[in-house]
Amino acid sequence: MKLLKYLSKVFLVSSLSLAVVSCGDDKMSSSVDENGIPSVIKVGVVPGPYRGMIDKHIRPIIEAKGYKIEFVEFTDYVQPDAALDAGDIDVNLMQHQRYLDSIVQNQGLKLTSVINVPTLGLGVFSDKYKSFDELPENSKIGIPTDAVNLSRALGIAKKLGIITLKDEKSEQKASIADIDENKKNYVFVPMEAAQISRSLDSIAAGFIPGNYAYASNLDYSKALGVEDVSEPIKNVVAVAKKNENTIGKLFKDAVTSDEFVKGIENDKNFDAFTRPQWWPATK
């Protein structure tokens, strides 16, 4: 009987050992080719149009080269960069260049952009009013809480003529404290960017980044104001710095291909998106 118990224990330990080895083999089976590119590429996205852009117009190009794309959904701007730096994902497309630069500088993440894409600008939306002329004094206006998009929103507010800023040089890094003239005493309320569109019933208006405005089906033709998208705030494909010439090059080649350009030009869903400077002239 003791012999049977001993043999049972040996068999159990052996089985567990094999299981551990098997798990390790499964993990390693996520193959990387001679170019250093995994067979399954994990792409980080947030709510908005860029998952659709990848799925419809980039995925076919990547998969034609023998790779698969797996989407990883995030609900804010912070997690996709942390995940990219940690190696939990391979690519993300959800942020503009200025935001990425800020993250890299402030958090020391080893990330880089490889190409920018057609981008939907930040819009100012309201459920109650059709223009800023209609907004009562002391109205609450939602703006993104992160420093980059907050200053971006204040810059747009300045161009719309509803505020002035104390220092022209501060517009790139403006905070609420930099507001100089605010004739109607609007109360600017910093909020998580993803929450602003969901809060339009409790605020007079909100400055909403394009991806979240798109995800909420907000109508840009009814916006109180729309951003003129400059090059530093066009969304970028980002990768870990070490993968710039492997995974990064694969995506850069896909985005700059004739197939991608023609696909975007023929897709009415992207008509309102500002094209990058590199974009070829199309008929």
Can you describe this structure?
The protein is an alpha/beta fold. It contains nine helices and ten strands. The strands form two sheets. Strands 2-1-3-10-4 form a five-stranded mixed β-sheet, sandwiched between helices. Helix 2 packs antiparallel against helix 9 (258-265). The radius of gyration is 24 Å and the shape is elongated. Mean pLDDT is 88; it is low at 1-29.
**Element-level helix/strand string:** HEHEHEHEEEHEHEHEEHH
Percentage of residues in helical conformation: 25-40%
What is the tally of helical segments?
Answer: 9
Residue share in β-strands: 15-25%
What kind of sheet is the major sheet? 5 strands, mixed
Low-confidence stretches: 1-29
Give the rounded overall mean pLDDT. Answer: 88
**What does the radius of gyration come to?**
24 Å
Ends distance: 85 Å
Q: What is the structural class?
A: alpha/beta
Annotation, overall tally of beta strands: 10
Strand order of the largest sheet: 2-1-3-10-4
Rough shape? elongated
